[in-house]
Amino acid sequence: MADYRFSFGPWNIHEGADPFGPPVRATVEFGQKLGLYRQMGFEGVQFHDDDAVANVEEKSFDQIQKEASAMKKLLDDQGLVAEFVAPRLWETPLGVDGGYTANDPAARRWAIERSKRAIDIANLLGTNLMVLWLAREGTYIRESKNAIEAYHHLRDALNQLLEHSPQIELAIEPKPNEPMDQAYVPTIGHAVAMSYQTCDPRRVGGLIESAHALLAGLDPADEMGFALAHDKLWSVHLNDQNGLKFDQDKSFGSVNLRCAFNQVRMLELGGYAQTGRFVGLDVKAMRTQKVEQAHLHLQNSRAVFLTLVDKVRTFPQEIQQQCVADRNYEALEMAVLEHLLAK
Ligand code: 3MF
Ligand code: MG
Predict the structure, then answer these.
(1) Is-contact 82 127, C-beta < 8 A?
(2) What's the rounded mean pLDDT across residues 21-47?
(3) Domains in the chain, CATH or no CATH each
(4) Ligand 1: which of 173, 185, 212, 250 to mutate, most ligand atoms within 8 Å of CB?
(5) Is the peptide bond preceding residue 179 cis, with omega within 30 degrees of 0?
(6) What is the rounded distance in angstroms from the CA atom of residue 281 to the CA atom of residue 139?
(7) What's the CA dihedral at 79, 130, 125, 168 to 10 degrees?
(8) What distance in Å separates the CA atoms of residue 98 and residue 58, rounded to the nearest whole number?
(9) Which of 169, 225, 235, 269 maximizes the CB count within 10 A of its CB?
């Protein structure tokens, strides 16, 4: 049976700042973070474009090429691979009201150009996958944009990116809100529908983050099932979320173990491990955590995932089938709970 491969982004080891307070931990140097990957059983590194090439917008293509190649060497030396590159479009002042869907044509051009550079970086790092978290593609008030036009702009942007590189695959990471009041492409259904409007639907898919699905009031496992049914689950950001509040990125399974079990079950049913795609984490350490232990949330999330793989594989098939045949879902539910509670 194929083994799962795990990834996380360097931003998952962070200084603990939140909107109400400054950093509380020293910065862990990038090289030191890379050293933690293998040690904790991770092989894939998730990148923003500027995680790979700092201040990417100020650099010439030659310089980008030089720095991305140096990063690739650093990865090779540590036995790591880049899982994906994502353009960080939400921090530049020109993108204050969005990029691809901005009303300002200059902002739209900027977003597409920066994303093309991110694709170049992905190619240099040896990955075909670009993740698009559409952070500011949306509105604070509905009257500020025309959603019909916005979705058309988004389709045009996706087409330009697909045309920029024949091998690039675009995985949209849906999220319903934050930082916007309402985001465009809030669910995987929207992302899959968008894919079919592009010039090459086979190269547009999705990444599902557990917390984002929960914020949309949806079940992450079912969102994954929808993507898998369309062959479009190209990555996941596993984490957890305690109710409908800000995006918490809590450790996987830490709030709702049964929901986590069902996400793992869905990946097992979909044969996800055999696809070779990564089980990505997008988890934050608690603000209270000391710097020496500010990576434990990653290790713990991976451990919970693997324990749940075992729980899924050892769940008695006969009981499941019998309960389904009898339409006795109360018994099925109890069997699941007993299985999860058993030592
Ligand atoms: C925000 C996110 C992002 C994306 C990341 C890669 C900072 O809620 O989940 O994390 O995952 O930009 O796409
Ligand atoms: Mg994420």
Answers:
(1) yes
(2) 98
(3) 5-314 (3.20.20.150)
(4) 173
(5) yes
(6) 27
(7) 120
(8) 20
(9) 235
Q: Is the pLDDT of residue 245 over 90?
A: yes
The whole-angstrom separation of Cα 268 and Cα 277 is 13
Q: Looking at residue 112, what is its pLDDT?
A: 98
Q: Among 73, 63, 199, 83, which Cα is nearest to 130's?
A: 83
Q: Which two tokens stand for residue 222?
A: 């079912």
Query: Cα(238)–Cα(215) distance, rounded to whole angstroms?
Result: 14
> pLDDT tier at 47 (50, 70, 90 boundaries)?
very high
Task: Please indicate whether residue 51 is annotated as part of the active site.
Answer: yes
Nearest protein CA to atom 5 of ligand 1, as residue: 133
Number of other residues whose CB lies within 10 A of the CB of residue 4: 18
Q: Which of 3, 14, 50, 51 is catalytic?
A: 51
How high is the pLDDT of residue 343? 65
At 2 the pLDDT is 75
CA of 282 to the centre of ligand 2 (A): 5
- Dihedral over Cα of 46, 50, 52, 56: its sign: positive
Distance CA 156, CA 10 (A): 31
Q: Which atom of ligand 1 is nearest to the CA of 175?
A: 8
Helix (H) or strand (E) holding 305, with range, is: helix 296-314
Distance CA 174, CA 101 (A): 15
Q: Is the CA virtual torsion 5, 6, 10, 11 positive or negative?
A: positive
